[in-house]
Give the backbone structure.
Amino acid sequence: MGLFILPPRLKSELELIKQILSSEEDSIREIVEKNPSLEKHLSLINKLVVKYRRSNNYEVADEIVKNEVGHICENILRNTGIFKDTIDGQLALFRFIEQLNLEVINND
């Protein structure tokens, strides 16, 4: 669908989110107070904690964060595409391809 480049600051922020999902030592509020950059991610953190809890090992937390960020990026790309993933969008894409005299190849 496209390429999604994450800002470098997310590396450390996502690392902290992985630590939240793999440890129950500090409260989420305490962790966010120590790391104010997490404040903007608080709704995501709460969603992940409800969905996956905080007792994961680090490898599982890493996979959770990668998958969830991937879903967020996919949704952003899906909603910002020129040709939306709807019937109308697909028809517009095919009309565009026809105007360019291109051939559609389906690899599915």
